[in-house]
Structure formats: structure tokens, C-alpha cells
Amino acid sequence: MTSLDKPTEDTQQDDARAVTEAALFEAFGGVRGMVETVVPGLLFVTIYTINKDLHMSAIAALAVSLVLVVVRLAMKDTVKHAFSGVFGVAFGVVFAMMTGNAKDFYLPGMLYTLGLSMAYIITTLCGVPLLGLILGPVFKENLSWRTRNPGRKKAYAKASYAWGLILLAKCAILFPLYWWADTTQLGWVLIALKIPPFLLAVWLTWVFLAKAPAPIDVFAEMEAEEKAAELKAAELNGSTGPESADAGPRHRRDG
To answer: Where are the annotated segments for Disordered (predicted)?
Structure first.
């Protein structure tokens, strides 16, 4: 390796890390997405801790979720993370209202976390890591990592296992508390466990993918193939055009 090669490789690695960071922020919502997932639950447990009023706590949590969606719409920003928060809060409100048990406000989210942890682990064991399915379109590689980029598939597998095990550990803490602790204790522990495990999983994903081979941009490949086909067609038309144009005068001279 020459002294001229090293800066180029360092620049490529820095570009790969920057692309990975941008893709992760886009996929998981970044700081704003984290805030939107925390605020409704925080409001619920705060109000319930103060007055033990299930209805007021549930309505306040649902109302703030809707406000977050409206703000996103007003700013013409993507609403997928805010909408997911609304659905999660709505299911929690329905469960809690039906049973009359305030702890059931958290149950749908806990069951979702458990199911997601299993999905990460099972899909990876089956050779199709869930994180690759999520991030493949974001990196414009779709499923090319499965057959054409084994190093990247390995990175997706490691990251998916990390997500699955971290979420499973979170469930191992929350479900016993659901049975043994009261609503406020469960709520505050759940709020405390919202962001740190998520940040750990995102950081590990960044570490694995930053060291992995670069994604294969299948969209760019398709565009290149289309341009090549257009150029080939243009060349064929250009080669046949003059011959057909000369055929008339030659025929007249022969005549």
C-alpha cells in the first residue's frame, strides 16, 4: 500500500460510516423518533403516579401521541414513527380500559417487544436476518446481501442477534415486574429501559455494518443496465440508419 492509497481508503471508510449513520437514523427515527416513543408513556406514568386516575392518564397519553402526529404532518415530515407510537398507545389504552388494570397499558408494548426479539433471532437462524430486510432498502441494496455480499450478510446476522438478545433481556426484566410490581414501579422502570437498550442496539449495528463490505447499490446497477441498453439501441439505429439512407442514391446510380 502506498502513501497515496491510505487516504483514499480512509476516505472510503469514513464515507461508509457516514452512510451507515444516516441510514440508521432514517430507519429508526433518530433523536426525534426516540422522544416520540418516550413522551406518551412518560406522561401516562407521571399522571398516574400523581392521582392514580387511569382514564385521565390514558387520555393524556393518547392525546399527546396525536399531537405529535399533527406536528409531523404540519411540518410535512415522515409520520411513520409517530403513527407507530399512536397505534401502540391506542392498544395500551384499549387494554387498560377493558381490564380496568392500569398495568395493562404497558402490556401490548411488552408483547410487541417480546415478539420482535423472537423475530430477530428466528429470522437470523433461518438465514434471513430481519435487520437486513429492514435496512436493505434503506441502503439501496435490497436483498443483494443474501447471495452477493456474504460479509454484509454476516454483519446483518450479528446485528440481528444483538437486537434480539437485547430486547429479550429487556423482556426478562419487565415481565416479572408486570406480575409482581405495581403500576408506577413498572412504568418508571419501563421508561428507564426505553432509550438505553435501543441506543446499545443501534450502536452495535453501526459497529458491525461499519466494518462490513459496502452495500451493492442495485438501483444504480439497474439504471446502468438501462443506460447501456439505450446506448446499444442507439448504436444499432445509428449503424442501420446511414446504410438505409445510402441505399436510395446507390439504386438510382445503378439504374
So the answer is: 233-255
52: three-class secondary structure by DSSP: coil
- Residues 192-226: tens digit of each pLDDT: 998 899 889 989 999 999 888 888 888 787 778 77
For residue 122, give the amino acid letter: I
Q: Which residues of 95-128 are buried (b: 16+ CB within 10 A; e: fewer)?
A: bbeeeeebbbbbbbbbeebbebbebbbebbeeeb
Grid coordinates belonging to 43: 406522561
Which ranges constitute the DSSP H helices of 52-149?
54-74, 80-99, 107-125, 130-135, 144-147
Q: Quick one: three-class SS letters along 128-174? A: CCHHHHHHCCCCCCCCHHHHCCHHHHHHHHHHHHHHHHHHHHHHHHH
* List of residues 6+ apart from 44 with CB closer than 8 A: 57, 58, 60, 61, 92, 105, 187
121 grid coordinates:
433471532
The DSSP secondary-structure symbol of 75 reads T
CA gap 161, 69 in Å, rounded:
32
pTM of the model: 0.79
User: Which residues fall within 8 angstroms of residue 112, CB to CB, at 6 or more apart?
Assistant: 88
